[in-house]
Amino acid sequence: MTRAWPAVMAAGLAVALSVPPLRSIIELSMAWHMVFQMPLLVAAGALAARVLPERGLPAKWGSFNVFGLTGFMAAQGIIAYWMLPSAIDRAVVNPGFDVFKLFTLFVSGVLLCDAFQRAPMALQLFFIGYWVSMMCWLGIYFATTDLRLCNAYSLESQIATGWCLLCLGLLLGMVWLGSAWQQALKNPAV
Amino acid sequence: MPADRPSSRTPDLAVSDSRAQLAVDVASPAALIKTFAATTAVLVVALLVLMQATGGGQSFTTETLRRQHISRQAELIPAFDVTLGNGQRSTLKAVLAPGGKVWLVDFVYIRCQTLCLSLGSVYQQLQAQIEARGLQGKVGLLSISFDPANDSPAALADYAKRMGMNPQIWQIATLTQWQDRRRLLDAFGIMVLPAPLGEFEHNAALHVVSSDAMLTQIMDYADYEAALNMAASMAQAMPVAGRGPSAGVP
Question: Which of A75, A181, B36, B241, CA to CA, is 20 to 30 A from B90?
Fold first, then answer.
């Protein structure tokens, strides 16, 4: 039971950020919204999948998800969608849409945890490489453009978000490299 | 061909027992075909959703989506009670209607020190061009304050004087009831954020509005000359009874 605590706490904090009084934090700061709450939701989904039987997915899912390819692709679609400035605006303005955000990003975390356990290194590298470069590029763009991309956030907030996103992208890359290194040590064949 | 793949792949994937187990279970030819179908379906759905959300891959921000939407489908601006710079109470409809003019509408607040000042100068140039090209009867300028709590008629009148507004061309108005503020901003797609020093940060643009209160185009301040030309040609094309020589088009 104690194994479930990290998932419960991550999910609880992420959901609390969408509900008053903490909601004002994500309404005011794009960085807290995009670089803290959204990744936290994905992490909560992944942590939950680790402790659930069959990683919380239907037993038949495996035969539609060889090497985790379908799961990666679905998570990829969800994450790409939530990188759109217009989608971020909508989640701030429209509470119903915010619930949709909570749900889809959590599900993407579940799918990713499952996909990583099925995927060979080459496929993991492909998707991780894509996300790291996307986050770094988007981060640098957010931080350096003088165009305000979200109507819901100030330019200042957008610039801070850009740098945070860049850091998160680099961190993600390093964490994956670290775990890949460990696995390679255990099993030189991979 | 894929029949012998599972066994040949298994040692590669044998990072831990559970991983090897997963790979053995799923990598049958049938599973590969199902995965291919599922991945393709997910990809198609994701692309459709993304295309839908970005107006066909063109608009990634709320602002560009809004502009794209309005230029395809004009929207009727609902009714509002407004107070003009001379203190006179009216409705937005009544302000827009006379003479079949096409209006360039923008949003301001009088205390604004940053963006609004540059917008003010754009409007001064527009006013000068309207005078120079003799478009007084065709194109009007309307600045609407979204800060009715602070912008009293006196403040509006003072602002009009500072900006050198010619009331025949350039009007300024604010909401009579501050409760209408949210509705007004939503109707035009403006989002206002509180900023330090009691200022506001907001998306700013030129809104082309016909005399029958249809919002037909939203354009950048930088393109103010194109906006003026568009408004002038719209006014030309509109058959309005009782307007002088330009009403000749059937």
Answer: B241
